[in-house]
Design brief:
It contains two helices and five strands; from the N terminus they run βαβββαβ. Helix 1 packs parallel to helix 2 (60-79). By secondary structure, it is α/β, with parallel strands linked by helices. Strand 3 and strand 4 (47-54) form a beta hairpin. The model has no long low-confidence stretch (mean pLDDT 92). The protein has a five-stranded mixed beta sheet with strand order 1-4-3-2-5, covered by helices on one side.
């Protein structure tokens, strides 16, 4: 498993490219977006990559960047036309303290 830690100044474009490249691999099946933890699984549901966003969910600009990133990645996943899928739970009251 490989972990990536991202702070609030992450680049939406660079992070989109990194996640899309990973999601395009034949061995990857599932992206679980759960607030600051984005976990990528293979077909055996083994965790392969984890993106940990160490950000302030109360900051509007950060939430907009995360939403943009999420939409970019979801659009890419849906364009793959294979069994790759995702679960979206980006904004949850648990993460907004």
């Amino acid at each position: 498993m490989r972990e990536f830690f991202l702070s609030g100044d992450f680049s939406v474009e660079e992070t989109t490219l990194k996640i899309n490249t990973i999601m395009s691999k034949w061995s990857i099946q599932f992206l679980d977006i759960n607030g600051p933890n984005w976990v990528i699984f293979d077909y055996e549901m083994n965790i392969k990559y984890v993106f940990l966003f160490q950000v302030d969910f109360n900051d509007l600009e950060t939430r907009i960047k995360l939403e943009d990133l999420k939409l970019n990645v979801i659009h890419h996943i849906e364009s793959l036309k294979d069994e790759t899928t995702y679960r979206d739970n980006l904004i949850n009251s648990v993460f907004m303290v």
